[in-house]
Structure formats: C-alpha cells, structure tokens
Amino acid sequence: MPRTSAFLYPWDVNGDPAAAELVAGLGVQQVTLASAYHATRALTPRHPGRRIVTARHSAVYYPADPAHWAGSALRPAAQTWLPGEDPYGEAAAALGAAGLEVHSWVILAHNSRLGREHPGSTVRNVHGDHYPWAPCIARPEVRDYAVRLAAEAAVRPGTTGTELESCGWYGLEHPHAHDKIAGAPLGGYGRWLMSLCFCAVCEQGYAEHGADPQRLRARVRDLLAPAWEGRPVAGELTGAEAAAVTGWRAAAADTFQRETVAAVRERARERGLPGFRVLLHAHPGALALGANAGADPARVLEHADGVVLPCTGDDAARAEVLPPFAAHRRPHTVLAANFQIVAGMGGSPGTLVDDAAHAASLGATELRLYHAGLATADDLALVRHALDRLP
What we know:
alpha/beta, 8-stranded parallel β-barrel, two-stranded antiparallel ribbon, 38% helix, globular
C-alpha cells in the first residue's frame, strides 16, 4: 500500500481518548496535523465532548516564541478556543503513541486576521479593494512573516515533516460567510484578473517585467467592464501584457516558496532532523490560486521534497495535475495525491481504490486523505476497506 496520511486538527484528538487509535486503525501510516491554521467552523462527528469547533481567526496551535518574532511587523495570533498551552504538541504526542508519524500542516498566505489588522500588506485589486484574506506574497513584510511562521510552525516536537499550504498567491475566491460575489459573469479568467495585485510592490514588479503599471491597470479594468453589465469578460491580456504579469507573479511565488522551504530546512537542521520532509500543496497551472497555489513543477521540485496535489474528481482532474510534476520527479520526490474522503463535502470514499490506482498510474507515490476528523463513521469505514484493498 502506498504511504498514506490523513489530515487532522488538534481538536479532533485532544479530549478524545479513542481518536488516535481510531485513526491508526484506518491503515494510515501518518497524520498531517494542523499547527498554524486559518479561521474555520468544523464538525467533530465522534468527539465525546463536542460536535462543532469554531476557530474564530487564524492562529497557531502551539506557544509561539516571542524571541523568534522580535522585530517582525506581522505576527501570528494565539488560539483561545482549545484548552492547554500547546494543543498541537498534545495531539502529536497522542498520535505518536499510537504508532503514527506526525507531519505538521502549516497555512502560509491565507490569514484574514492579519489582513484586517494590516490591510496594506494584502492583495489590492485593480479597483483598489484590499482582500483581507490574501496577504500579498511579493511584499517583504509578508515574506518575512511566512519565513518565520514556516520555520516555527513546521518543526515542532514529535514532528518529522511538514506540508505547507497556500504557499503562493491567493486571490478573489475565498469561502466567506454569507458570500455574495457570484452575481457578475466573471468566469475563470475574470476571477483571475480580479485576483491580480496592484499594490506598489506589484506595480514595480510589472514595470520590471516590461509593462507600464498604469496602462496595465486600465487594460484590466477595460477587460472586466462588461462583466459588471452582465456580459462576458472582453477578451484577454495581450501576449506582452500577460508575459509581464505572469513573469512577475511566477518570480514572486518562486522566491516565496524557496525562502519558506529554506527556512524550514534550516530550523530542522538546527534541531538535528536531517531527514525532515518538506512538501508543498500545489497545482501546475500558472493561474492557479489559493490553497493549492500555482507552482512551476521543474522549479519547485528543485528545492522541495515533493508536492501534495488535488486529485478529487474524475480522471481528467488527476490527469491535469499529476503528469506535469511526474515529468520532473527525482528518485525520492513525493507526489502525494490528495483525495477528499468526506462524502458530504464532495468526496467519494467508496471509489478510493480505483481513484488511487489511477493516480498511481499517473505518477502518484503517496496518498493524502482529507479529512479524517471531518468524516463520518460511514466515510471512515469505506476508507478502512479501501486501504485494506490497496496493493
């Protein structure tokens, strides 16, 4: 069976004496456990003391070191909705005692609390609106924050690897309470245009890549204008315009990814963990945004140990993401196929055997299961059955 990891939150484990053994009984070898996570409202279907956890803002689930954050303009917040000083450490210890390897799960460029407190550090769209959920990864203070967070949140006691999510550009789309942005027919390209950042740093970057920032701003506004009337977006950027935009954004993302991975590696070296694995949640699409941010396969696999790729859906969805990375795979590169296993959230645990086999045929070397803490007993029974059948 391929190496398999299940995602969990600390609150799925802490306070539930049966949780760690239940997860180990699924047949997984690893848990990917949240150490720094965004705001969420989550179900806990089997916990003996609760059914809903509301994480009110982005937070770290361990005691942050004040010395590590000295001089930083942006800092993580502590959580207040779980008991104890170190919920991550408590959960990691319980999972390790059950024979499971623990890797940390770190959210980087998605933090609405920071965005509300520091709007100038967020993506600023072509109309001047700030996206509080989306730090601009080209800005030096955001890169400094991400580097510090990656190092501290990834390398925790009892942890032998990490998975860095939203390690790249975030944009317009964001699951938001009472969302009301679907009224205009933006389409995929229009949503990408509305995700472009026009802060001072990004405008300078466009200029360095050959585009006049003000002309580019006017051009993007013109392309979007029909959507506000109810018509499709009017065409696309010209070749030179697109090259300047994508060139700058790819360069900024590459710098962001390299700096955060390097910071984790250095912290792991300091802690005497030479085999500490660093994976990025990614997508090969140049325009991809969000949790699985766009990453150039050749470049990202130069410095990361591998990637976690979204593989829920039909064969075409997997064929879109796996082969571009498989083409650049090295002997020890991890290509983890991530499957949603919660049926109520669009997952298909009943087809996991066939889906995993298809992913393996396209180059996947490991599996990720999202999300064991959110899954019902029926979902987990199907997962257990599937893992028993995998070769």
